[in-house]
Specification:
Elements (H helix, E strand, L loop, with lengths): L1 H14 L2 E7 L3 E9 L2 E8 L4 E8 L2 E9 L2 E5 L8 E3 L5 H5 L1
Antiparallel strand pairs: 1-2, 2-3, 3-4, 4-5, 5-6, 6-7
Length: 98
């Protein structure tokens, strides 16, 4: 988990993003990264479940997202973020943030 936290700080620094909060347990990580005021990226990682959820947040609403668990990924498309569209490729954190 320490390596992932280090990677997130490096990515935020590389793209000029501000980490608003970070919360960890022994198996989970929750991070909110500010892009602009009122626009952020939220990351949730659970190593026990091999879960990675990434969401683009506008205000308090998810407007786009990619979730993965156990190697299976789905997208919450911007056209309707309440729906799921299954995708084949794995998304990485930097890919989502960029």
């Amino acid at each position: 988990m320490i390596g992932l936290i280090h990677d997130i700080f490096n990515i935020a620094d590389r793209y000029g993003l501000k980490i608003l909060n970070i919360d960890t347990t022994d198996v989970t990580l929750m991070v909110r990264i500010e892009i602009l005021p009122n626009i952020s990226i939220q990351l949730y990682r659970n190593t026990k479940k091999d879960k990675l959820n990434m969401a683009l947040i506008l205000g308090n609403d998810r407007v786009y997202g990619v979730d993965g668990e156990g190697g299976l990924y789905h997208e919450h498309p911007a056209e309707d973020p309440t729906t799921h569209t299954f995708i084949k490729e794995r998304f990485e954190i930097e890919e989502f943030e960029a």
